[in-house]
Design brief:
- It is a single chain.
- This protein is mainly beta.
- The protein has one domain.
- It contains one helix and 16 strands.
- Strands 3, 5, 6, 7, 10, 11, 14 and 16 form an eight-stranded antiparallel beta sheet that branches. Strands 8, 9, 12, 13 and 15 form a five-stranded antiparallel beta sheet that branches.
- The longest helix is centred in the N-terminal third of the chain and has 15 residues.
- It starts with a strand and ends with a strand.
Length: 213
């Protein structure tokens, strides 16, 4: 069961935003009025984070520890869009912004492609790629207050497809969330790019991605 950390939507600076609550919902949903959610996957240990920056640091340390046998991790928490490549021919049909608002419209070809992320000190031969998808639903009853709900969406190929490159985008390899990927010699390198494409037919938001190697 994932943990949902509710972060102050109006915290400024963003990295110092307060943690308002933490929940472990059995239905993968959390009310998010006045907050945004940072999801920590099941099995990843995070102990007493003090603010958003501390939470993210501990999340990715814990994620690396979860995948035994790997020693390095690179990631983008997607709390802002600085790691999204918006050049023509890369990302398409998306929204970008702060506080977990990188999202994909339910249209053909809607995709997010990252900027090149250098991997050091050596090129990986095997890796695991993880990423998170979610959606927001809202209720606006005239007899009750407005409610906004965060809902996890399984990062399966029926919802979102993933391909990755280790040579700066010269070639891409298909993979699935949490699967071990053996990287062919011809496609190895240290310039990582991830591309996520929405095939779900609904609007999706992206919580983070990471490559463990």
């Amino acid at each position: 069961m994932s943990a949902h950390y509710l972060i102050d939507l109006y915290g400024n600076p963003l990295g110092s935003a307060r943690i308002l609550d933490v929940r472990n919902p059995s239905n993968d949903q959390s009310l998010s009025n006045g907050s945004f959610v940072v999801r920590v996957p099941d099995g990843v240990q995070v102990v007493n984070p003090t603010d958003l920056t501390d939470l993210l640091t501990k999340k990715y340390v814990g994620l690396l520890a979860f995948y035994t046998g790997f020693t390095r991790i690179s990631f983008d928490d997607l709390t802002d869009a600085s790691g999204v490549n918006t050049a023509p021919g890369t990302s398409a049909a998306l929204t970008t912004g702060l506080r977990g608002s990188v999202g994909l419209y339910p249209t053909a070809g809607a995709r997010v492609q990252s900027v090149v992320t250098p991997l050091t000190p050596a090129q990986p031969t095997v890796c695991v790629v993880t990423f998170e998808t979610f959606r927001y639903t809202s209720t606006d009853d005239k007899n009750d207050r407005y409610q906004r709900t965060y809902e996890e969406i399984a990062s399966s190929p029926s919802s979102i497809t993933c391909s990755v490159s280790f040579n700066g985008g010269a070639t891409f390899l298909p993979t699935t969330e949490g699967a071990v990927l053996n990287i062919p010699l011809a496609d190895q390198g240290t310039n990582f790019v991830i591309r996520l494409t929405n095939v779900s037919g609904q609007r999706l938001f992206l919580g983070s991605w990471a490559v463990i190697y």
